[in-house]
């Protein structure tokens, strides 16, 4: 039986898995990595802990990837969470499940995951510090891979270069250029899982470092549908009430966010980064933070009235300490225009409505997302219509395979994207080896 020569381009999550599986299946594998070490993006994922997967079932995984999720069914059916957990355990890495179904190594060290996968891929020859300049094709079939220094013969090539985010880790968009040069369509690249930049920079800076939990963040088009000023106040608890949101609402979620020197970051903001980025292409976008989503407008109004009556001699800013993080109090007071030293018992009904409005709808105008290079994940990539989902092979070039973020697949945070890279990498490596 002829041994297939396979070149895997990129030693990230998908590339290590593809190289390991291809070698396991009897292929003669070369793993090319343009940086000096494999798995650099994995090392910083999950804040250095590496959120490798999620405990949810395949159906929920596919839903997390939106309309393109169905493409992953074959890959997930071939190699999914349990297979990943078993593989890591084989190399001494035990895993645990945390809040939201997130899977991490018990050690909380991404390095352990990278080390395990590097050992799995040790059957391949790792060549680092070489950037691929061209995939060589003859008569519609891969015949080699050319770097800036040398050329490698190949019966098959796997593009596992990642997206175009965090270029310092090696994910600088090389795979898109290589695929496009071979005739593949690249769906427009956009930042996904990305923070938001606000117009009110001074306000954001004054609250910098504030972490908000259990709040509701709503993004909406603020010009196209000309939202009346009171619409967002009618009930930003619509999600709780189960009512259909206003037409202008882009997305509304509960969770945690961080106020930064440039705007809004944290898990909740990142999840909404892509829909906001897409909406910004059509017009202006604003966001509203409901600081008290568990309380309806009427209940919060009653609470304010009760607190101001009960503690009537306390100053306004002191009364806010029961409602807001300390660092938010002074900026919030400034937003209301109310004297911070005014006694609670002297605050008028009209002033209470202003306070109520800012508690239920703290608004920021979004100017942009951070750039694609700062996004956790790249949306867009090689068009899935041009890839066979059962093998990860190109429909345009024989012997050309894809895995991971270079394809037009992206999902929410929570381990989904890494699992997709592992699953598609495993399938691509197996298919490239002809197993």
UniProtKB/TrEMBL annotation:
InterPro entries (alphabetical): BaiN-like, BaiN-like_dom_sf, FAD/NAD-bd_sf, RsdA/BaiN/AoA(So)-like_dom, RsdA/BaiN/AoA(So)_Rossmann
Keywords recorded for this protein, A-Z: FAD, Flavoprotein
Domain RsdA/BaiN/AoA(So)-like insert stretches: 250-377
Cofactor list: FAD
Pfam families in the record: HI0933_like, HI0933_like_1st
Domain RsdA/BaiN/AoA(So)-like Rossmann fold-like residues, every copy: 5-430
NCBIfam families given in the database record: aminoacetone oxidase family FAD-binding enzyme
Name of the protein in its database record: NAD(FAD)-utilizing dehydrogenase
Species annotation: Dehalococcoides mccartyi (strain ATCC BAA-2266 / KCTC 15142 / 195) (Dehalococcoides ethenogenes (strain 195))
